[in-house]
From TrEMBL:
Name used for this protein in its record: GNAT family N-acetyltransferase
SUPFAM superfamilies (UniProt xref): Acyl-CoA N-acyltransferases (Nat)
Cell division recorded as keyword: no
Source species of the chain: Micromonospora thermarum
Keywords: Acyltransferase, Transferase
Cited InterPro entries: Acyl_CoA_acyltransferase, GNAT_dom, YpeA/RimI_acetyltransf
Annotated signal peptide: none
Domain of life: Bacteria
PANTHER family: ACETYLTRANSFERASE (PTHR43420), ACETYLTRANSFERASE YPEA (PTHR43420:SF44)
Pfam families recorded: Acetyltransf_1
Alphabetized Gene3D superfamilies for the sequence: 3.40.630.30
Keyword Transferase: yes
Protein backbone atom coordinates (compact mmCIF):
# COMPACT_ATOMS: atom_id res chain seq x y z
CA UNK A 1 0.00 0.00 0.00
CA UNK A 2 1.32 3.43 -0.87
CA UNK A 3 0.36 6.80 0.43
CA UNK A 4 0.85 10.31 -0.77
CA UNK A 5 3.20 12.68 1.10
CA UNK A 6 0.21 14.37 2.79
CA UNK A 7 -1.27 11.08 3.92
CA UNK A 8 -3.35 8.34 2.36
CA UNK A 9 -5.70 9.10 -0.50
CA UNK A 10 -9.46 9.28 0.00
CA UNK A 11 -10.83 5.93 1.11
CA UNK A 12 -7.40 4.39 1.70
CA UNK A 13 -6.40 3.02 5.07
CA UNK A 14 -3.31 4.69 6.44
CA UNK A 15 -0.29 2.39 6.59
CA UNK A 16 0.68 4.08 9.85
CA UNK A 17 -2.32 5.63 11.60
CA UNK A 18 -2.11 9.11 12.93
CA UNK A 19 -1.97 9.09 16.71
CA UNK A 20 -4.87 10.99 18.28
CA UNK A 21 -3.99 12.73 21.52
CA UNK A 22 -4.75 15.81 23.55
CA UNK A 23 -2.89 18.93 22.45
CA UNK A 24 0.26 19.93 24.29
CA UNK A 25 1.64 23.45 24.74
CA UNK A 26 4.46 22.67 22.29
CA UNK A 27 1.84 22.05 19.56
CA UNK A 28 0.96 25.73 19.24
CA UNK A 29 2.72 26.43 15.92
CA UNK A 30 1.45 23.23 14.29
CA UNK A 31 -2.04 23.87 15.65
CA UNK A 32 -1.99 27.37 14.19
CA UNK A 33 -1.07 25.93 10.78
CA UNK A 34 -3.88 23.39 11.05
CA UNK A 35 -6.35 26.09 12.08
CA UNK A 36 -5.50 28.14 8.99
CA UNK A 37 -5.93 25.02 6.83
CA UNK A 38 -9.31 24.33 8.46
CA UNK A 39 -10.54 27.84 7.74
CA UNK A 40 -9.30 27.80 4.14
CA UNK A 41 -10.91 24.41 3.45
CA UNK A 42 -14.25 24.91 5.24
CA UNK A 43 -14.84 28.62 5.93
CA UNK A 44 -18.49 28.22 7.02
CA UNK A 45 -17.79 25.43 9.50
CA UNK A 46 -15.81 27.48 12.01
CA UNK A 47 -16.50 30.66 13.94
CA UNK A 48 -13.84 32.96 12.53
CA UNK A 49 -12.40 34.04 9.23
CA UNK A 50 -9.04 32.98 7.93
CA UNK A 51 -7.98 36.65 7.96
CA UNK A 52 -8.80 36.98 11.66
CA UNK A 53 -7.00 33.73 12.50
CA UNK A 54 -3.93 34.69 10.47
CA UNK A 55 -3.77 38.07 12.19
CA UNK A 56 -3.87 36.57 15.68
CA UNK A 57 -0.43 36.66 17.35
CA UNK A 58 1.31 33.37 18.02
CA UNK A 59 1.18 34.11 21.76
CA UNK A 60 -2.64 33.91 21.64
CA UNK A 61 -2.49 30.50 19.93
CA UNK A 62 0.04 29.33 22.48
CA UNK A 63 -2.13 30.50 25.40
CA UNK A 64 -5.23 28.79 23.97
CA UNK A 65 -3.37 25.52 23.38
CA UNK A 66 -1.89 25.60 26.88
CA UNK A 67 -5.36 26.18 28.36
CA UNK A 68 -6.99 23.33 26.43
CA UNK A 69 -4.15 20.89 27.10
CA UNK A 70 -5.40 20.14 30.61
CA UNK A 71 -8.50 20.36 32.75
CA UNK A 72 -12.13 19.36 32.44
CA UNK A 73 -13.81 22.47 30.99
CA UNK A 74 -12.44 22.31 27.46
CA UNK A 75 -10.04 20.13 25.53
CA UNK A 76 -8.60 19.87 22.05
CA UNK A 77 -7.47 16.64 20.42
CA UNK A 78 -5.25 16.36 17.38
CA UNK A 79 -4.28 13.67 14.89
CA UNK A 80 -0.50 13.54 14.72
CA UNK A 81 1.16 11.22 12.21
CA UNK A 82 4.50 12.98 12.83
CA UNK A 83 5.16 16.25 11.08
CA UNK A 84 2.11 18.38 10.44
CA UNK A 85 -1.16 17.77 12.27
CA UNK A 86 -3.91 16.23 10.12
CA UNK A 87 -7.02 16.38 12.28
CA UNK A 88 -8.69 18.14 15.18
CA UNK A 89 -11.72 17.89 17.43
CA UNK A 90 -12.51 19.88 20.54
CA UNK A 91 -14.93 19.47 23.37
CA UNK A 92 -16.25 21.90 25.93
CA UNK A 93 -18.61 21.83 28.86
CA UNK A 94 -22.17 23.08 28.37
CA UNK A 95 -22.89 25.01 31.61
CA UNK A 96 -26.67 24.85 31.08
CA UNK A 97 -26.48 21.02 30.70
CA UNK A 98 -23.94 19.55 33.15
CA UNK A 99 -23.97 16.07 31.54
CA UNK A 100 -23.24 17.37 28.03
CA UNK A 101 -20.04 18.00 26.09
CA UNK A 102 -20.32 20.23 23.03
CA UNK A 103 -18.05 18.96 20.25
CA UNK A 104 -16.48 21.76 18.21
CA UNK A 105 -14.01 22.47 15.41
CA UNK A 106 -13.97 18.95 13.98
CA UNK A 107 -11.68 18.68 10.98
CA UNK A 108 -9.74 16.08 9.01
CA UNK A 109 -7.25 17.07 6.31
CA UNK A 110 -8.73 16.10 2.90
CA UNK A 111 -6.07 13.49 2.11
CA UNK A 112 -6.84 11.73 5.42
CA UNK A 113 -10.62 11.63 5.02
CA UNK A 114 -12.13 8.18 4.80
CA UNK A 115 -9.40 6.57 6.91
CA UNK A 116 -11.28 6.29 10.21
CA UNK A 117 -9.57 9.35 11.64
CA UNK A 118 -12.86 11.17 12.22
CA UNK A 119 -14.05 8.30 14.43
CA UNK A 120 -10.75 8.34 16.33
CA UNK A 121 -11.06 12.08 16.99
CA UNK A 122 -14.68 11.80 18.17
CA UNK A 123 -13.75 8.80 20.33
CA UNK A 124 -11.02 10.88 21.99
CA UNK A 125 -13.50 13.65 22.82
CA UNK A 126 -16.02 11.05 24.04
CA UNK A 127 -13.46 9.38 26.32
CA UNK A 128 -12.48 12.72 27.82
CA UNK A 129 -16.16 13.63 28.23
CA UNK A 130 -16.91 10.39 30.10
CA UNK A 131 -13.84 10.87 32.30
CA UNK A 132 -15.23 14.30 33.21
CA UNK A 133 -18.61 12.79 34.13
CA UNK A 134 -20.42 13.98 31.02
CA UNK A 135 -22.28 11.16 29.27
CA UNK A 136 -23.58 12.89 26.14
CA UNK A 137 -22.06 14.64 23.11
CA UNK A 138 -23.72 17.32 20.98
CA UNK A 139 -22.50 19.01 17.82
CA UNK A 140 -23.94 21.35 15.21
CA UNK A 141 -23.75 20.99 11.43
CA UNK A 142 -24.72 23.56 8.80
CA UNK A 143 -27.99 22.48 7.18
CA UNK A 144 -27.07 21.29 3.70
CA UNK A 145 -23.62 19.95 4.66
CA UNK A 146 -24.75 16.43 3.79
CA UNK A 147 -21.25 14.94 3.78
CA UNK A 148 -20.66 15.94 7.41
CA UNK A 149 -24.21 15.00 8.39
CA UNK A 150 -23.82 11.47 7.00
CA UNK A 151 -20.38 11.06 8.57
CA UNK A 152 -21.74 11.98 12.01
CA UNK A 153 -24.72 9.65 11.53
CA UNK A 154 -22.28 6.79 10.87
CA UNK A 155 -20.64 7.64 14.22
CA UNK A 156 -23.95 7.32 16.07
CA UNK A 157 -25.07 10.95 16.17
CA UNK A 158 -28.82 11.49 15.76
CA UNK A 159 -30.50 14.63 14.45
CA UNK A 160 -32.47 16.08 17.38
CA UNK A 161 -34.72 18.22 15.19
CA UNK A 162 -33.35 21.37 16.86
CA UNK A 163 -32.35 24.10 14.41
CA UNK A 164 -30.38 27.19 15.41
CA UNK A 165 -29.12 30.21 13.49
CA UNK A 166 -25.51 29.99 12.30
CA UNK A 167 -23.48 32.12 14.73
CA UNK A 168 -21.72 34.20 12.06
CA UNK A 169 -23.70 33.84 8.80
CA UNK A 170 -27.33 34.93 9.39
CA UNK A 171 -28.62 33.28 6.21
CA UNK A 172 -27.52 29.81 7.36
CA UNK A 173 -29.04 27.41 9.86
CA UNK A 174 -27.35 24.67 11.87
CA UNK A 175 -28.87 21.43 13.07
CA UNK A 176 -28.01 19.77 16.36
CA UNK A 177 -26.97 16.13 16.60
CA UNK A 178 -26.41 14.11 19.79
CA UNK A 179 -25.10 10.73 20.87
CA UNK A 180 -23.88 9.06 24.04
CA UNK A 181 -20.26 9.83 24.92
Amino acid sequence: MTSTPGGPGPGQVAAARARVRRVRPRDAARMRALRLEMLADAPLAFLETIADAAARPHAEYAARIAYTSEGTDTAQFVADPGGRLVGHAGGTVAPEEPGLTVVYAVYVTPSWRGTGLLADLIDAVAGWSRACGRRELMLEVVVGNDRAYRAYQRLGFVDTGVRVPHPTVPTLTELQMRRPA
